[in-house]
Write a structure and sequence with these properties.
It contains 26 helices and ten strands. It has 640 residues and is α/β, with parallel strands linked by helices. The chain folds into two domains: 285 residues, 5'-nuclease (Rossmann fold), CATH 3.40.50; 204 residues, no CATH class. A hairpin with a 2-residue loop joins strand 9 and strand 10. The longest helix has 23 residues. The protein is globular and about 75 Å long. The protein starts with 5 loop residues before the first helix and ends in a 5-residue tail after the last helix.
């Protein structure tokens, strides 16, 4: 995100960033940037460690509160309805596919891929910690900057766009925000960027000229290739060979002008391709307007809990009842994309790239979600699926996902089960709970009730796991299920003491152990499929106004733990041996296992047993003995 090369340039010039000790102030935080930055050093290749993220988020906001800093977190919403960044987003999605494959083969993470549940876990933890946050309807940068100016406080981010906005109280780059030291010092050492300091070295250049820099250098919706001029920008720099000379040259060139209009006219006159003048002029005008700040549209949400009153006309399609839950993060930004654009981009995961995308398994659930969202809507004229005949009332959503290593799109028909045929999005919140629950059960293909021994908060996770076992390809094996359930147990019983309770020591050791090399491709694909099911089912359940209660997602999956446990189980260890120190964890594990197996259809249990027996014939422990998984099926009375 942001302006190409600007972060490096600013950080390489000490006069632009001034030391400060930050305390006793409001702070507007770029939430997506914070979420990704806090997770930077944690697991990627095993699908994520949300438990570790939860601990890191707690530490961060404890440090802020110790310094009397009032945080307000702003998060991105749906994609921009104008599609001005579509090509940029598609290129990044393609890059993430390549990066994901490289990681699956053992390469070091590049930072472009994050675990699929990261944002929703982040929202969940902020809610529990009672940190004020808001999810915007579209991209959040403008609202973040506008609110900071309205409240006269700085922005915390690592997005170089905030070097361009005229922020009165400045910008704190996250890379210099030493929050780990804040709890002990009662202030946080940081560096502050003020746009006035930025303009001083360039003959006190007018602040209004700085957005022209973003347009020339290139940002998320302006390709720098559009700005091919008849000279080299580096030639205006005092050191044409220095790092950042291009940015420096642009700034020194801009400092010659008294207004953005003068600079733009000079730029247009210098273009090599004069035929592109109209296109470039329109792009420049759009870019400059993006950085012009006025009164925020979101302050009222933090002050009185009201959703934004001003929405672009295209977003008026969002029903009134959804707007507050959308703003407070209870409803997914994916709903905005499906409703407004009839287009959805699916998140890349670390999986087996020789197999079809792991998101294929959850497409039937997404179809139900689209069916609820688009009931009564018409297909957009510019989103016409390649079907011979579009039946009146039918709607399709264009899904972007990978095919092999290539980003591609498929058209998915919105469809709702019979149980939801009379539901309408405008009144979905008023539908009887029994109806909403039946739609959810039908979407997951669940016909059997969950035993009373299982707490209600686990019902959704059990249903999702049954759906996964029923539809996953390749078929997961028993050790994959056991390892997943061990993760459930760890998350539920570890409490707030971070896994130190009796009976969980070995699991916590597995979670924190570092493994080198590539992830097991079979386990990676299996758990990516499970996470895709969880990711979409949670969204559907929220759209159905919590037809079932939800367990905390941070407590359901820890990739390092689950992958390591699956490896141990495959080599001959038993679930009991990993829970040997405590009767409560073992009982919970057995109850969860029984609930899952009881809800499966007989043919699915047969496939699960067959897959495990085939593996037991191939697998050998380190001492050469054969893994007898089949005998452990009998031990757990799987087949009665």
């Amino acid at each position: 995100m942001g302006v190409r090369g600007l972060m490096t340039y600013v950080e390489g010039n000490h006069e632009f960033l001034k030391d400060c000790n930050f305390e006793r102030s409001k702070l507007i935080i770029d939430g997506d940037n914070l979420c990704f930055t806090l997770y930077r050093d944690f697991d990627i290749k095993h699908g994520g460690d949300y438990y570790a993220l939860e601990i890191q988020i707690e530490k961060f906001f404890h440090a802020l509160r110790s310094c009397n800093i009032e945080p307000y977190v702003i998060l991105d919403g749906g994609s921009d309805h104008t599609d001005k960044k579509l090509e940029t987003l598609k290129q990044r999605a393609q890059d993430r596919i390549k990066d994901g494959r490289d990681i699956s083969l053992g390469a070091r993470p590049s930072g472009s891929i994050k675990p699929i549940l990261l944002r929703s876990v982040f929202n969940e933890v902020l809610t529990r910690l009672q940190v004020p946050f808001m999810q915007c309807m579209e991209e959040a940068d403008w609202e973040t900057a506008a609110l900071a100016n309205e409240w006269n406080c700085p922005v915390l981010s690592h997005d170089s766009d905030f070097f361009i906005f005229p922020l009165k109280a400045g910008f704190l780059p996250f890379s210099h925000f030493q929050w780990q030291r804040g709890a002990s010092q009662k202030s946080i050492p940081a560096k502050k960027f003020l746009i006035s300091n930025f303009c001083k070295p360039f003959s006190n250049m007018k602040v209004e000229l700085v957005p022209v820099l973003a347009a020339i250098a290139g940002n998320d919706y302006i390709d720098p290739d559009m700005m091919r001029v008849s000279f080299r920008w580096e030639g205006f720099s005092r050191n044409a060979r220095a790092r950042g000379a291009r940015i420096d040259g642009i700034l020194r060139w801009l400092s010659r002008f008294q207004s953005p209009t003068d600079a733009i006219n000079a730029l247009l006159n210098s273009l090599q391709d004069q035929r592109a003048i109209d296109t470039v002029e329109a792009a420049l005008d759009l870019c400059l307007r993006e950085y012009q700040l006025s009164k925020s549209n979101i302050a009222q949400f933090f002050q009185s809990g009201l959703a934004p009153s001003k929405l672009p006309q295209e977003l008026e399609i969002i029903p009134t009842w959804m707007r507050v839950p959308m703003s407070d993060g209870r409803l997914s930004d994916m709903f905005i994309d499906a409703l407004v654009l009839q287009r959805v981009r699916l998140t890349s995961q670390i999986e087996n790239f020789d197999l079809p995308s792991s998101h294929g398994i959850s497409r039937p659930i997404r179809q139900v979600m689209y069916g609820l969202l688009l009931a009564g809507q018409k297909q957009r004229a510019d989103r016409r699926p390649p079907v011979a005949r579009l039946t009146p009332g039918d709607c399709y959503v264009e899904e972007y996902d990978r095919e092999g290593l290539t980003l591609t799109s498929v058209w998915v028909k919105a469809a709702c089960p019979v149980s939801g045929k009379n539901l309408r999005l405008e009144t979905l919140d008023q539908a009887p709970k029994e109806t909403r629950l039946q739609v959810l059960r039908d979407a997951l293909g669940m016909t059997k009730p969950i035993p009373n021994s299982i707490a209600a908060k686990f019902h959704l996770a059990v249903y999702i796991t049954c759906y996964w076992l029923s539809r996953a390809d390749p078929q997961p094996r028993m050790e994959h299920l056991w390892a997943l359930l061990l993760g459930f147990v760890f998350g539920e019983l570890s409490g707030r003491d971070k896994g130190k309770e009796a009976g969980l020591d070995q699991l916590n050791t597995l979670r924190t152990s570092c493994t080198a090399g590539r992830p097991d491709p079979e386990a990676a694909h299996a758990y990516s499929q499970w996470q895709s099911c969880l990711y979409i089912t949670y969204k559907l359940n929220r759209l159905l106004c919590l037809a079932l209660p939800e367990p905390e997602k941070a407590r359901l999956y820890s990739g390092p733990l689950v992958h390591q446990a699956a490896l141990k189980l495959r080599r001959g260890m038993t679930p009991e041996s990993l829970l040997s120190a405590g009767p409560v964890p073992l009982q919970l594990f057995r109850d969860l296992q029984d609930a899952v197996l009881d809800c499966l259809e007989p043919d699915v249990r047969d496939r699960l047993q067959k897959a495990s027996r085939q593996n037991s014939q191939r697998g050998r422990t380190s001492d050469g003995s054969v893994d007898d998984l089949a005998s452990r099926f009998q031990h757990f009375d799987v087949y009665e």
